[in-house]
Amino acid sequence: MNTKPSSEQRSSVDTVISGATIITMNESRQIIRDGAIAVKDGLIVAVGKTDEITAAFDAKEQVDGRNFVITPGFVDGHVHITGDPLTQGVRRGAPGEDFTDVLTKWVIPLFHAHEPHDEKISAQCSAMRMLHSGVTSFVEAGTIRHLNAVAEGVASTGVRGRIGGWVEGRNFAANETDTVTIDEAIATLEAQVEKYKQTDSSRVAAWPLLIGHTVNPDEVWLAAKRLADENGLCISAHMSPHQSDPDWFLENTGKRPIEHLADIGVLGDNVMITHAAYVNEREVEIFADTKTNVIFCPHAALKGAFGVTKIGLFPEMAEAGVNIMLGTDGVFVDLLTCARLMTGLFKDARIDEHVFPATEVLEMVTLNGARGMNMQSSLGAIEPGMKADIVCFDTDRPEWFPEFDVVEQILQANAGIGAHSVWVEGERVIENYRSTKIDEDELFAEIRKSSQAIVDRAGIKVHSPWPVI
């Protein structure tokens, strides 16, 4: 006969969430109905049925999870937390302009027009969007101009982020040498990695992030890889969203981009390549052989007319064992929207409804994301020993009824709703749809003040396809 443990036998923990449906993402992918999670010192110490957990633990905080579906915290593999969030309503480009023109005439000027305070509140805004949609960890896209301000902004929200300053290294201007630019780029990488060191307890740390495309010469890639290897960090870089990157590499190196990066020895399991729309079968093989991670941003691909449904080889990458992560890229979208797109894009492209089922896509934003960040031993699943990154979705809403396949519903039923509560390493950073760390109303007021000033400094005229009177 089982007896309830006495108070002397019961362990003390910080938090117990009980009565929930838990999508554990553990090795056997268990889903626990009427489940509970015990958390202490930022770690998950036990997961199981409610009666078992509540019998074994005394908690300082008891959370009623009877209306919750719980997932591990999501990982946004690629997001611009500056440049985009405060100017997202500004249309990029004019009719007839190609991808390069849009970047040089519209996107980059908006990034450059941000002052330190702008980037700080932009980072806070982006972090709030991520946390509200269940993202507890992110990898920034390497386009920060004022790293100190951004680090402060990110840290104030409680989210876990890996960030990096804007580093290029190839100077296309005629009045300076590449050597000077390369030296400056490498020095920047070294300084930021030293200042914002990654430790096991780091919420915010710097990685040697690269812009990628055609702007980082081999010397900068090699320096970034050395820093990553020596310090247990990762590299992320944009590559091949359009044909322009392969064309440039073929003309200047005789190889396609991923072939060239493999030749100089800078790929590996601590490297993430974002977009990868215009890669061929040989490049897919290289991704698989080198264990290089690929980050796909479905919303950005569609909005940017990359052509992925015609030429994208993402099903082939998955078949080859390439670790595919998902990213938002930063404008007008949350990670669950990207996940939802991922469940449909390649079904239609291949006329095969079995491509990328919901289960596989949920892995992309949890386990695969943790693996890409080299944090698979501490993130991506709800099981003992993992960091307590926990997301609670409230199912007491009409879009959740009736509740049957919670994996399918977590991707399909949450558009625009967001997470009720979010914990990062055991700290409750979102409660009842509001931040516990910062005053969101105050932040939004600051954003309204800064946004127009940024557009004015960039010299960009905001235009609408319809008359505004």
How would you explain this protein's 3D organization?
This protein is an alpha/beta fold and 469 residues long. The chain has 2 domains: 11-72 and 382-435, Roll (Urease, subunit C, domain 1); 74-372, TIM Barrel (Alpha-Beta Barrel). The chain is 38% helix and 20% strand. The protein contains 17 helices and 17 strands. The strands form 3 sheets. Strands 1, 2, 3, 4, 5, 14, 15, 16 and 17 form a 9-stranded mixed beta sheet that branches. It has a 4-stranded parallel beta sheet with strand order 6-7-8-9. A 4-stranded parallel beta sheet has the order 10-11-12-13. Helix 5 (178-195) links the parallel strand 8 and strand 9 (204-206). The radius of gyration is 22 Å and the shape is globular. The N and C termini lie far apart (77 Å). Mean pLDDT is 92; it is low at 1-6.
| Shape verdict | globular
Strand content: 15-25%
Q: Averaged pLDDT, please?
A: 92
Helix content range:
25-40%
CATH topology of the largest domain: TIM Barrel
The major beta sheet can be summarized as:
9 strands, mixed
> What integer value in Å does the Rg equal?
22 Å
N/C terminus separation: 77 Å
The level-1 CATH class of the largest domain: Alpha Beta
Domains, number: 2
Low-confidence stretches: 1-6
- Under CATH, the homologous superfamily of the largest domain reads Metal-dependent hydrolases
Structural class by secondary-structure content: alpha/beta
By DSSP (H or I, 4+ residues per run), the number of helices equals 17
CATH architecture of the largest domain: Alpha-Beta Barrel
Tally of extended strands? 17
